[in-house]
Amino acid sequence: MRTSFLLTAYAIIYVITLISSASAVAAPPPKATLGTFGIETRQMDLSIKPGDDFYGYVNGKWLAKTTIPADKSRYGSFDILREKSESDLHSLLSEHIESPPTDPTLKKVVDLYISWMDEATIERRGIAPLRPDLDRISAAKNKTDLMKLIGSPQMSAPFSFGIQPDPANTKRYKVFIGQAGLGMGRDYYLNEGPEYDAFRTAYQGHIATILQLTGDADSRDSAMEVFDLEMALAQVQWSPARQRDVQATYNPMNRDALMQLAPNVDWPVVFDASGLGDTQHVVVGEISAIADGAALLDLVPLNTWKKYLTFHRASDTASLLPKAFDEANFDFKNRTMRGVKEQRERWKRGVTLVDRNIGDGLGKAYVEKHFPPEHKSQMEQLVNNLLAALKSRIDTLAWMDDATRAEALKKLATFDPRIGYPARWRDYSGLTIKPNTLFENIQNARQFEWERRVNRLKKPVDRDEWHMTPPTVNAYYSPLMNQITFPAAILQPPFFDGSADSAVNYGGIGAVIGHEIGHGFDDQGREFDENGQIRNWWTAETLKRFSAATEELSEQYSAYCPIPGNDKTCVNGALTMGENIGDLGGMQMAYTAYRRSLEGRQAPVIGGFTGDQRFFMAWAQVWRGKSRNDALLNLLLTNPHAPEMVRGQNPQRNIDAWYEAFGVTEDDAMYLHPENRVRIW
Ligand SMILES: [Zn+2]
User: If one looks up domain 141-304 in CATH, what number appears?
Assistant: First the structure.
């Protein structure tokens, strides 16, 4: 089965946001990277009333003149910063290729990149690197053989294994089993309408193309068999919104119970094949989907399963194979599903490949060159200010009773912030990488990572582990660890700029930090206590008030239908609830922290804008971006984050200070009556 490194919906919660610095009241030093004080005012459209369309007011000129690059499905502040990371990493790689490193890890980094860039060798080897897998699949004669195949790491199956801390005791690891095995998001199979018919037809064509490339003479018929199998699987799987249910997806059980739940699986054979042979206890996620998905192993003929495995194995590795595979993959996954016009340049894809497979190897060099030590101390200060701001808010939250308040403060006190890079770098000494065997290199890297996880099952949980590499422009909260993590690359403008106005930094990285902290108290995070364990620390009365507020927030977001000309596919308020609570709480916390930093003094007016105005403008600037319609559709159906244009302007509508800062009244389109403003954290 394909192993999943991020299994349950709550294992790791991404933010996609960022940083800011916390100097006090004085006017900013003159040279911010963006504009004069951290906001690109030339990108604003001052003809738009801020109360009518705040996002357009801050970003209007940029939105009007920017075209999404042909190789991208979306483009904006995050993507621009990601391009910088890409280019920084590329320079590092080029230096090391120029003068080959003696450091054994860096040598592997360089060799992996060289193997990726060597297209002639990839073409010459043809399908040979994939052949052993295809032969194994083709040799399967019976159900036991099928079990061995679906248990193998890197093969597809109706479920996947992950290894993560046990929510009942976060000092030890446990094996998790979650639904898996589809080639598109579940709703693409199930939704009705001509646009979804077109996606399904395109997917059938894609399966046929890949199967034909593997040598299947009846690829069109085979593709329909594979598609029908996946359709049956999609029908039993849980929706992305339901997958967020922490209680429903937490089903600890022993082997006997697992065998009763899904008797169609020969679990001992599957466990052996995956390297988890002596596993006695597991946590099952989407419980009915695991049982009903497993039943298909008997209901669907072995021969169809073999075609399914062949397709997925070839599709998963297509970018490592000759151009015909790679192009077919791009055509469906990027062009059809996300509207991208052109493949990214090869070197850029190579940088991503290295970052994903041996990320700490290059990450260490990246940090040495691109992450000034003072950024770390500035961020630490800022994180502390945000935590203090939330504490002051929790102290006085009217909807929370004292018993729940005491528990919330206990959890807040154990937050563990991590900034820039990990305390300990990964050891890659057991990983084999050669400069001319791309396919095997990636298989080795994946197997190496899976074994790293399996091998620690009997060891205590490693709290120093990071799930993002330092050059990543993102951040995350882990409820099981109660950790917030900010990789080095997000600590740059427009998120964070040591030379920018502090109002801008609070509205940028400050609100991002607040967003991550907020995940600890969103509708999922609130189910975990100060030790990361699932425990209900809420009184019934307080929980009722919290749920009523989050329900109102959900309705606000569900009213946004961001795809032009499509009023049927809108933001899913339930799916995006955790992120939206994070954004609202994050802004509230950051605003409180900003006001506290002024210590009662008046913020200076800079560029004609008050401190409060600059704070709110910074958030909208961070979310500046455009997406292709197909990419938006994909996001709305599958992703727990609302689109950028919604995130950039809805939280403010719930904050009184925004109304005061811009003189927003009931005559303005974005106005919410004070009673309808949602106040949570
Ligand atoms: Zn988030």
Answer: 1.10.1380.10
